[in-house]
Amino acid sequence: MPFEQPQSIRTIFFDAGFTLIRPNPSTAEICQQVCQRLNLHIHIDEVKQRMTEAQDYYLRHMRLNRHTWGSEEAISEFWIGYYMNLLRPFIEEHDEHRLYQLALGINEEFDKHTSWQLYPDVIPTLEALRSRGNYTLGVISDWGISLGPILRKLHLTPYFDCLLI
């Protein structure tokens, strides 16, 4: 059925991670820093090398478990598994408890607003859209409930009419 008149855009949604915000410092640096705080001293280059393996884990898991983003518990379990996979070569065999504690520490670090930074074009873009006055703006993300506090601390919530997680 053809439109009788062109439709204008009235609502714009953004994803959060790697669209509005990015890790700061980098994911590898945050992993290394948390490990150092928990007495696992690994070189940043070693962590960066493992990021490819971790990405493979991510992609395999997403293909097999599309329901992951449906609950906070599943999201947390996924990321802890991701970081366990990343760090496994650096931990003595059979020390699953230590591996879990390191992965949990990294996961908790990423829930903090201090680990995230706005991309430089975010505020100018949101200001330009707001100045036009005729758009409803929102965020749609599979992030989890920690996203709300992160967006508040980064002073993004005043720009958005809704947040769908």
What would you note in describing this structure?
There is one protein chain. This protein has 165 residues and is mostly helical. The chain folds into two domains: 11-16 and 119-164, HAD superfamily/HAD-like (Rossmann fold), CATH 3.40.50; 26-115. 49% of the residues lie in helices and 11% in strands. The chain has helices spanning 27-37, 44-64, 72-87, 96-110, 122-132, 147-153; strands spanning 11-14, 21-23, 116-118, 136-140, 162-164. The strands form two sheets. A three-stranded parallel β-sheet has the order 1-4-5, with no helix packed on it. Strands 2-3 form a two-stranded antiparallel sheet. Helix 6 links the parallel strand 4 (136-140) and strand 5. Helix 1 packs across helix 4 and helix 3 crosses helix 4 (96-110). The radius of gyration is 19 Å and the shape is elongated. The mean pLDDT is 91.
Distance between the termini: 33 Å
Arithmetic mean of pLDDT: 91
What would you report as the Rg, rounded to the nearest angstrom?
Answer: 19 Å
Order of helices and strands: EEHHHHEHEHE
Lateral arrangement of strands in the main beta sheet: 1-4-5
User: Are there runs of 5+ residues with pLDDT below 50, and where?
Assistant: none
Shape: elongated
Query: Into which percentage range does the β-strand content fall?
Result: 5-15%
Helix-strand blueprint:
Elements: E1 11-14, E2 21-23, H1 27-37, H2 44-64, H3 72-87, H4 96-110, E3 116-118, H5 122-132, E4 136-140, H6 147-153, E5 162-164
Parallel strand pairs: 1-4, 4-5
Antiparallel strand pairs: 2-3
